[in-house]
Amino acid sequence: MRVYLAGPEVFLPDALEVAAAKKRVCAAHGLEGVFPLDPPPAAPPAEMPYWMRIYLGNEAHIRSCQALIANLTPFRGPSADVGTVYELGFMRALGRPVAGYSTAAADFLARTRGFLGAAARPRADGGFEDAESMGLEDFGLGDNLMIDGGIAAAGGAFERHDAAGDRWRDLAAFERCCARIARG
Q: Euclidean distance between the first and final Cα of the chain, in Å?
C-alpha cells in the first residue's frame, strides 16, 4: 500500500534523509512511503510557476496513494502545519484512510495558552480567550477539533508522543501510525 507522508519535514535541511528514515519504517510494515519531495507521477508543465508545480505534484502524489500519515507536530506556533492539514483533509475527502501523529503530547489548549502567554486570559464561563476575546478551543484534543475529528471519522488514530530529543526525527509515534495503517 502506498502511503503519502505529509508533514513539514520538507523544510528541514536534511529532508531527504528524514524521508529515507520514514520510508524504512514504512517498508518494515509492508508499506511504500511517498514523500512530497519524491518526483511526482506526472510532471506539471514547466511554464507554470514553481509553487504551482509543487502543489500539483503533491496533489498527484496524494491521489496515487491509498492512505496518508500526517506529521501534526506543532509548526511555527501551537498548531500543525497548515499545508499538512490541507493534505490530510484532501485525502479524507477522497475517502481514504488517514492517521496523524505529533511529537508534542500536550493538548491543543495547553499549547495555545503557552504560545499566547499572558494574552490567554480566563473567561467567566471557565474557558479561556485571547486578546481579541476569541475563545480558545478546549476539548483535550491533539489539535483543532476538525483535524482530530477527520482522523477519527476515517477510523484512524492521532498518536501523541513527547519526543525524547529532536522532535522532527523522533519516529516512535509515526511508527505506531504505520502499524495501524498496515493492519487496515
A: 10
Give all domains of the chain, ordered by start, each with its CATH number: 2-110+127-183 (3.40.50.450)
Count the neighbouring beta carbons within 10 Å of the beta carbon of residue 63.
13
Rg (CA), the chain: 17
Per-residue pLDDT reduced to its tens digit, 91-118: 999 999 999 999 999 999 999 999 999 9
pTM, rounded to two decimals: 0.96
User: Does residue 9 register a pLDDT over 90?
Assistant: yes
Q: How far is CA 128 from CA 14, 76, 134, 137, in A?
A: 39, 21, 8, 8
In angstroms, rounded to a whole number, what is the distance separating the alpha carbons of residues 39 and 46? 14
Sequence-distant (≥ 6) Cβ neighbours of residue 166 within 8 angstroms: none
Q: What are phi and psi of 153, to 5 degrees?
A: -65, -25
Query: How do beta strands 128-129 and 121-122 pair?
Result: antiparallel
Angle separating helix axes 82-93 and 50-64, nearest 10 degrees: 40
φ, ψ at 102 (rounded to 5°): -140, 140
